[in-house]
Design a protein that fits this description.
The chain is of the alpha+beta class. It is 31% helix and 22% strand.
Length: 603
């Protein structure tokens, strides 16, 4: 590809991501690190040029003459390899947030950029422009033991160089240039720290960490058990999800970024660096299917700990440290191509979304099936959640899509209330939950189904609608099939799959819903919905159609196999935060279901 920027921005499709289990960085195709939070994935940024080229900060690295770009992840890894080709030669850049050799999470955090001359001679320039605290804190740049160091409050980073030109320290940047010939190697290492000692590494230390990082990722990939259709895409999705796991707690972030727009120039810009309960079923199921028991166990118990803090009520989302507060505020950034406001925090955390109770009970049910038992305290809590659903299912809520219009009786929410009660009954019948209320749960379950079948199904449209009494559509009702409210042979669900495919689908793209949501502006097609439709087609016996749709969807990934939250159907442009965990989770779920003949996690 030919890398270029328009008004300082690159296409969202042109970003790749690297990470180390604590933070993640976005790297543009032109070699610029345009996003990095420090010290953690959900921390304030030190590089945020993706949101504001002038004030956000970046780590620039590029040839000084016109160039083209090819890139890939080293096979089986999250280590990025970018090859720049100019009229005079080519250079390969290997980027990684490196891992410690002993596998522990020590204080060392490091972004490494290794440069190798492939052919000819290429002049390059680099510039580290730190802007700590979302650009709010001006760094002080000085030298320590001859090494340039930028400091702001409790944050610090160093720029260590070997054969990469003499670093020049300016007011707000550390820069250099070099000419790299064939067979030569240069190295840039940026260790960073937050309220901890800043360790200045040796070159041999850096080389050892890079080699260990590659080996560690490949070792992890070799242990993944999936051997079905679209294996490369499934493995890349698994690696993308691994980058979203916050290793200190086991939580999985919905995405690595904040405020990347659902419509360029619009206001649908949200912070996704939190863990949503709605994703929990897909998350645990994917980890179990891919042979990730350590990650599955850590995630499940993080989820149980986080939800205990607000029990029996559930928050829509939780911070990666398990906290339930996510106050929303606006940052003084321009926003991606002028998309404002730029937000940190997420006010949706305070909404009522009744579907979350179904997703949590379904997740507990999956875990119990894998483990063969439930801890007594956990069993008691799941029973209390079922009791809560008995009392709350009649309420209106904001639904899975977090609309900011008036609450409604959303069909998907009611379906998931049914799932919550059904899973509690099943766990009780299997002796995994003490029988303290199963008769009440059965009665409420029947009442929920009667509500859905009499008030949320349109005989005229021959499908389940978005909410009780409406004629609008909602792709989220597909989850009624995927999570077990409906059986594959159910004629109403089969007709709903057909109606959504006919009216919300455009080519491979599926809109989330029709109707108002209390927000201005437009959005792209939500990728997870497309994968859900493919899985539903497979489960309802239309496997050939499911495979054809999946083939189209696999082709929508960017050049390194990543997906954003949404895609503009007209232009193919990525929209929304990235990499988007739910997009990759839905891909894994659909691939597994299609490959196994349509079987899934539903009861």
């Amino acid at each position: 590809m030919t890398a270029f920027r328009s008004d300082g921005y690159v296409r969202l499709r042109d970003y790749a991501v690297i990470g180390d289990g604590r933070s993640a960085a976005l790297i543009a195709a032109d070699g610029s690190v345009d996003w990095l939070g420090t010290p953690d994935l959900d921390s304030p940024s030190v590089f945020a040029a993706v949101l504001d080229p002038a004030r956000g900060g970046r780590f620039l690295l590029e040839p000084e003459e016109p160039f083209t770009v090819t890139r890939r992840y080293l096979p089986g890894t999250n280590v990025l390899e970018t090859t720049f080709t100019t009229g005079r030669g080519s250079v390969r850049v290997t980027d990684s947030l490196t891992l410690e050799g002993d596998g522990t999470l020590g204080p060392m955090r490091e972004l490494q950029r290794r440069l190798d001359g492939v052919a000819g001679t290429v002049p390059l320039r680099w510039s580290v422009q730190p802007r700590f605290g979302y650009g709010a804190r001006r760094p002080r740049i000085a030298r320590r033991a001859g090494v340039p160091v930028a400091v702001a409050g409790g944050d610090a980073l160093a720029v260590c160089t070997w054969d990469a030109g003499e670093p020049q320290c300016a007011d707000r940047a550390i820069s250099g240039r070099l000419e790299l010939g064939q067979g030569r190697r240069a190295l840039l290492a940026m260790p960073f720290a937050h309220r901890e000692p800043l360790v200045l590494p040796t070159r041999s230390d850096c080389d050892a960490r890079m080699e260990h990082t590659v080996a560690a990722w490949r070792g992890w990939s070799r242990e993944r058990s999936y051997e079905g259709m679209w294996r490369d895409a499934v493995l890349r999705s698994a690696l993308a999800l691994k980058l979203l796991i916050f290793a200190p707690s086991g939580a999985i972030a919905a995405a690595a970024t904040t405020s990347l727009p659902e419509h360029v120039g619009g206001g649908r810009n949200w912070d996704y660096r939190f863990s949503w309960v709605r994703d929990s079923v897909f998350t645990l199921d994917a980890l179990l299917r891919l042979g990730c028991p350590t990650e599955a166990h850590a995630y499940f118990w993080w989820l149980m700990h986080a939800t205990q803090l607000t029990h029996p009520r559930l928050r829509v989302l939780y911070r990666l440290d398990g906290g339930g507060d996510a106050p929303e505020r606006t940052l003084p950034f321009e926003g991606y191509r002028g998309s404002q406001p730029v937000r940190t925090g997420n006010a949706a955390g305070g909404q009522v979304q009744l579907d979350t109770y179904g997703e949590l009970l379904q997740t507990g049910w999956l875990y119990a099936g894998a483990a063969g038992r439930l801890d007594a305290d956990l069993a008691r809590r799941l029973a209390e959640l079922a009791d809560f659903v008995c009392a709350a299912w009649r309420d209106r809520d904001s639904g899975i899509w977090e609309v900011r219009s008036a609450p409604l009786h959303f069909t998907h929410s009611k379906m998931m209330c049914w799932v919550a009660l059904d899973r509690a009954v099943d766990l009780c019948e299997r002796g995994l939950i003490r029988d303290r209320g199963s008769a009440r749960w059965r009665l409420a379950r029947d009442q929920v189904r009667d509500f859905v079948e009499t008030r949320c199904f349109s005989s005229r449209r021959r499908c389940y609608t978005r909410s009780a009494g409406s004629s609008e559509l909602d792709a989220a009702v597909l989850l009624g099939l995927l999570h077990g409210y409906a059986r594959p042979g159910d004629p109403r669900m089969r007709a709903t799959v057909d109606t959504i495919g006919r009216e919300l689908r455009h080519g491979p793209f599926v809109d989330r819903y029709s109707g108002e949501d209390g927000l201005g502006g437009a959005e792209g097609a939500f990728l997870a919905c497309s994968f859900w439709l493919a899985e539903c087609l497979a489960r309802t016996g239309r496997r050939d159609r499911a495979i054809a749709l999946m083939d189209d969807l696999i082709g929508l990934a960017n050049d390194v196999g990543l997906y954003s939250e949404e895609i503009d159907p007209d232009t193919g442009a990525f929209l929304g935060n990235l990499p988007q965990g739910l997009s990759h989770l839905a891909l894994i779920s659909a691939a597994c279901a299609i490959g196994s003949g349509g079987e899934g996690t539903g009861g």
